[in-house]
């Protein structure tokens, strides 16, 4: 039975019940009441505003750190003096280590672990710890840390939902669903991907595509996205990509590389899980980010492309026609996941969505350059798009979200939907049946370590 019940209580002449369709039921334990819907609207508005603020902060740090006032992050970093790149990272590392040490010590009994609170907890998040974590995350990402920018708005969307749910006294099941809606909407807002944000809520955070989950997820995500337009652009994140034609060579490429990407994703996920478990904590946190960011700065002297979340690296891959040297793309493919893992291991927090996507995209360029030697006829950028979708699906274990996100991020890749689906399904299946972890579940704190679980884990808001 649905709660509330449908307005039309009479059954059809067949006598079958209105809730027998599997995806139409399921809200008896999580009643979608009028109060709940009002809080969905409030959560969407709050998430959109908080997401816009986090992106404003990120852009401000980027411009201050690398001395540019217009254009995107990648060119700004490349035009900055090498010494300035290193100095920006060193200062960010020194500040972040001290700030995170005291934040985690002063809020040791509070939680900002979004994923864990939805999956195994009661959906209760500390707003002050979440806010401090999010601000610090955007500062280090803006200064060049190889982590994603979406972690902060994801966490703040969930924290806002948790605060509203406690204020109105929602049940635990309602609070968990509302927090999941806020988390997914946070990503939808900052990337202008409302459908992808809703699917993140349903497929990843809540684990259900049932109608009682999809409806509030969609509502919260589109509201947050629309509200974020007060500061953020309405255009696609990758707005100038061509509509690559569908050719047989791309379809066959997807069938061949899908399992390869799935296999590589298992290693990547395991690496993320290992560094997350052994990441710096306690007093080591005071110096670990400084050391890690110094090493990152040295790497960036030769390869500035590895700095930041990887948006510009992915963009270059999507536009590629194969002109890059094979040695360069191979080095970038090896470096990006390693420096991302190093940043996580230092104890700082940030997202993994764009670093994962950019790694998949550059892998697509590597494999695509080999492929066109055997079967020419398609730009390398098409292979990069297919590989990026597969990498996201396998690493996140969310194939539907991966496909929706790629289409919304570009608005032109729907022409490649068949090879994208093929590669994503195969990669996700290989990763699922081979290991089963994702970049989120691999970062969950050990249940036998209370300090990690309650006092030193930020991962829920930063895993994406």
List strands and helices in order, with pairings.
Elements: H1 34-66, H2 73-79, H3 82-106, H4 114-119, H5 127-142, H6 151-168, H7 172-191, H8 194-206, H9 211-228, H10 248-277, H11 288-302, H12 311-318, H13 326-345, H14 353-374, H15 380-396, H16 399-410, H17 417-434, H18 450-455, H19 459-462
Helix pairs in contact: 1-5, 1-6, 1-7, 1-9, 3-5, 3-11, 5-6, 6-7, 7-8, 7-9, 8-9, 8-16, 10-13, 10-15, 10-17, 11-13, 12-14, 12-15, 13-14, 14-15, 15-16, 15-17, 16-17
Key structural traits:
464 residues, mainly alpha, 19 helices
Describe this structure as you would to a colleague:
- Helix content is 66%, strand content 0%.
- It has 464 residues and is mainly α.
- The longest helix has 33 residues, at 34-66.
- It is globular and about 70 Å long.
- The chain starts with 33 loop residues before the first helix and ends with a helix.
- Residues 449-464 have low confidence and may be disordered.
What is the compact description of this entry?
This protein is an all-alpha fold. It has helices spanning 34-66, 73-79, 82-106, 114-119, 127-142, 151-168, 172-191, 194-206, 211-228, 248-277, 288-302, 311-318, 326-345, 353-374, 380-396, 399-410, 417-434, 450-455, 459-462.
Low-confidence stretches: 449-464
Gyration radius over CA: 22 Å
Number of helices: 19
Largest sheet: none
Strand composition percent:
under 5%
Tally of DSSP β-strands: 0
Task: Give the helix proportion (percent range).
Answer: 55-70%
User: What is the arithmetic mean of pLDDT?
Assistant: 90
- Helix and strand sequence: HHHHHHHHHHHHHHHHHHH
What spatial form do the alpha-carbon principal axes imply? Answer: globular
